[in-house]
Write a structure and sequence with these properties.
The complex is a heterodimer of chains A (416) and B (251). Chain A is globular. The two termini of chain A are 26 Å apart. Chain A is 18% helix and 49% strand. In chain A, the strands form three sheets. Chain A has a 14-stranded antiparallel beta sheet with strand order 17-16-15-14-13-12-11-10-23-22-21-20-19-18, sandwiched between helices. In chain A, strands 3-4-5-9-8-7-6 form a seven-stranded antiparallel beta sheet, sandwiched between helices. A two-stranded antiparallel sheet of chain A has the order 1-2. Chain A has helices at residues 6-20, 23-29, 38-45, 106-118, 183-200, 325-336; strands at residues 54-59, 62-67, 73-77, 82-87, 95-100, 123-136, 139-152, 155-166, 173-178, 210-218, 221-232, 238-251, 254-266, 272-281, 284-293, 298-305, 308-315, 343-348, 359-365, 372-377, 380-386, 392-399, 402-413. In chain B, 25% of the residues lie in helices and 24% in strands. The termini of chain B are far apart. In chain B, 48% of the residues are buried. Chains A and B meet through strand 10, strand 11, strand 12, strand 13 and helix 6 of A and helix 1, strand 1 and helix 7 of B.
């Protein structure tokens, strides 16, 4: 599971910070000719006038044309099973990129980045921000920055660590740039590298028969993404894997970064044979529960929640078990959208809401439009938009003063 | 129904009740004000229009019913509720889990307060014990707070409720809105705090915000489900914070 990969990334980040984080660099970067504080804003806002240049780098079997002002240094770290690239911009520090062989926990990576900054002597975190969550070649990418203050000879000086992450897909990559300013330049350089890597890396394992990716916002702010894919194995069994990441600002210097990995094994008829949900918040395991179908619609669950062992059983109303996304989408298309039924009641195991029992979802066609659906679950009211196949394209939930919205950006293949 | 998980994740991450600064968009609730300048709470009237199906607990606590969808509170000083304490208010639960080993180091420190510490003494103890004021936690169990000594208002609240119950003082965790004067301007925040049953009434206790800050509280929900499903049970309360309008005016 992705939750178990964090230790490796943590070690890598620690190593990065030993070599990258330096008060002197931030100190020099914000010093104006007269040493005035106005230079901080200028330093934060600066960009390269144009592309840094073009360099060819060989990474494994691939030759990549990258934006860089000088030769790109490529190294292989077998211990961590990753490759590192240094792309000079013609500024004080190069962009450092780490190419991984497996997916990253976004939340854990962000949390460790902040902890790495905060843990340096004389360094204080001043701000954390998620700047953008966008697509790179149909994969999610996240751009974030950590502003910090570092003790220097003349007092505190400002520093800025920028982070670009493509955590999933065929070529997970993380890039860092520890120098005030050059935000757009960094994003452009890192995104170009990530796109080249995705395009030139074959997907490992069986290709999914269905894949979707949605991006989430809270009000105007980007907060997360979720990808799902359905894979058919050679023996005919199917597995649906969903990776969900949410990064919410909790204060100017803290965020709650949460990763949820859900793996559902489906039987031939589309019912859930087992479902495992793993939740990691700020790199800390919160929940790891697996529900396995027994007989007569009964499921036994076992694992941990809030750090405590938890086990038990619950029973689905249908003897065949819980519906998978395949059956739910089909029912929305064939019964709800065609008005064969006014409402659709579906049970699902969502241990983040209730680890002890099923959560009941009640869907009704909305008066707002032919493909609009009102959904009630656990006393929450959501508003869905679905496509002609019954698949959700947009999901909205009002929470306190803000509206959370998840919008589909990529859909490939079919659930059928 | 698909992709509900992403929103649930966000919703759970949004369980962020705290004394947050304005930059924290999650907890800073819109508050209209027609006050000309700084005013004490006794000089103001609060108008509240609950949103959607929200049934804020403060209506019950004050014996009020919405009029035309809105409520005007002429006084922000409500008499303390007097509903009876129940056995669950003194029990160890999944969330208020003071029976866990993590509290072993807490009790010797509590003992230093004397044989029968008051609710106020325990509140001050909790305020000091949770020494790292942090918004990076979600909604930790009391035993986790005992271990990490870290958190925001929800961690302060569950920890305080735990040590109150351990001293056999009935306690419950409330969720809702706190009104504060910040730099002379009234502000409203999502918040969590505690009520303890003392001398026949429920007394408001807050280990996160000191009395000197002169807070005023509008509860919208009580943490009733303290079992493993508590996170999902919290969500309707958070959704109830979707007020159509919170407005202060001169009295």
């Amino acid at each position: 599971m992705t939750a178990h990969r964090g230790g490796c990334v943590g070690a890598v980040l620690a190593a990065v910070w030993l070599s990258v984080a330096s008060g002197a660099r931030a100190d020099e970067a914000v010093r104006s000719p007269d040493g005035g504080l106005a230079s901080v804003d200028q330093a934060m806002a600066r960009e390269l006038d144009g592309p840094a240049g073009e360099q060819v780098a060989t990474v494994g079997q691939r030759r990549l044309k990258l934006e860089a002002a000088g030769p790109v240094r490529v190294a292989r770290d077998e211990a961590h099973r990753l490759s590192t690239l240094e792309l000079p911009l013609g500024t004080q520090l190069p962009v450092q990129c780490f190419l991984y062989e497996g997916p990253l926990d976004t939340g854990a990576t962000l949390a460790r980045t902040v902890r790495s900054v905060a843990g340096k002597p004389g360094l204080t975190v001043a701000s954390v921000r998620v700047l953008a969550i966008e697509l790179v070649e149909k994969e999610p990418s996240l751009l974030a920055e950590v502003g910090y203050l570092v003790d220097g000879p003349g007092g505190k000086r400002a520093g800025q660590l920028k982070l670009f992450l493509v955590p999933t897909g065929p070529a997970p990559v993380m890039c860092l740039h520890d120098e005030p300013g050059y935000r757009k330049t960094f994003q452009r350089v890192a995104a170009k590298l990530a796109a080249l890597l995705v395009r030139s890396t074959p997907t490992a394992g069986p290709a999914p028969v269905y894949r979707t990716l949605s991006l989430s916002t809270a009000g105007p702010m980007p907060v997360g993404f979720e990808s799902s894919q359905l894979v058919k194995r050679e023996d005919g069994s199917r597995v649906m894997v969903t990776l969900s990441t949410m990064v919410m600002a909790r204060s100017p210097t803290e965020w709650m970064a949460q990763d949820i990995a859900t793996t559902s094994e489906l039987d031939a008829a589309g019912y859930v044979a087992s479902r495992r949900v793993v939740v990691v918040a700020n790199g800390e395991a919160q929940l790891d529960l697996t529900a396995t179908r027994a007989a007569g619609g009964r499921y036994d669950f076992k694992g941990t929640a809030s750090g405590k062992p938890l086990s038990g059983s619950f029973k689905a109303k249908q003897a065949k078990g819980l519906w998978s996304d395949v059956l739910i989408t089909r029912a929305v298309r064939d019964e709800l959208l065609t008005s064969k039924r006014p409402t659709l009641v579906v049970e699902q195991y969502e241990p983040t809401l209730n680890p002890l029992a099923v959560t009941v979802f009640t869907a009704r066609r909305s008066s707002e439009g032919p493909r609009r659906i009102d959904l009630d679950a656990a006393s929450l009211k959501m508003h869905l938009t679905v496509d002609e196949r019954g698949d959700t394209t947009c999901n909205e939930l009002e929470m306190g003063p803000l509206t959370l919205r998840s919008e589909r950006k990529v859909v490939e293949g079919s659930l059928e | 129904m698909r992709r509900a998980l992403a929103l649930f994740a966000a919703a759970l991450a949004a369980v962020a009740f705290a004394q947050a600064p304005r930059e924290t968009f999650l907890t800073d609730l819109p508050l209209e004000s027609t006050l000309g300048g700084p005013a004490t709470w006794s000089e103001v009237t609060l108008s509240v229009e609950p949103g959607g199906a929200a049934r804020p607990l403060f209506l019950e606590r004050r014996g009020l019913a919405p009029v035309d969808g809105g409520v005007v509170l002429r006084s922000l000083d409500a008499p303390p509720p007097r509903d009876a304490a129940r056995p669950r208010h003194t029990s160890a639960t999944w969330v208020i889990d003071f029976q866990e080993k993590a509290f072993a180091g807490v009790w010797p420190e509590v003992a230093k307060l004397g044989r029968a510490p008051t609710a106020e003494q325990l509140t001050e103890f909790a305020r000091g014990y949770v020494s790292k004021k942090s918004m990076a936690r979600g909604f930790d169990l009391a035993s986790k707070v005992a271990e990490t000594r870290e958190g925001d208002c929800s961690e302060h609240a569950v920890f305080l409720a735990a040590i109150l119950r351990h001293q056999r003082i009935p306690a419950r965790v409330l969720l809702g809105v706190v009104l504060l004067n910040v730099n002379g301007a009234p502000r409203a925040f999502g918040h969590a705090w505690v009520e303890a049953f003392v001398s026949g009434a429920w007394k408001t206790l807050d280990a996160a915000i000191p009395k000197e800050a002169d807070p005023r509280y509008l509860p919208v929900d009580e943490l009733v489900d303290e079992g493993p499903a508590f996170a999902g049970a919290l969500l309707p309360g958070i959704q109830a914070l979707r007020f159509r309008r919170l407005a202060l005016a001169p009295r």
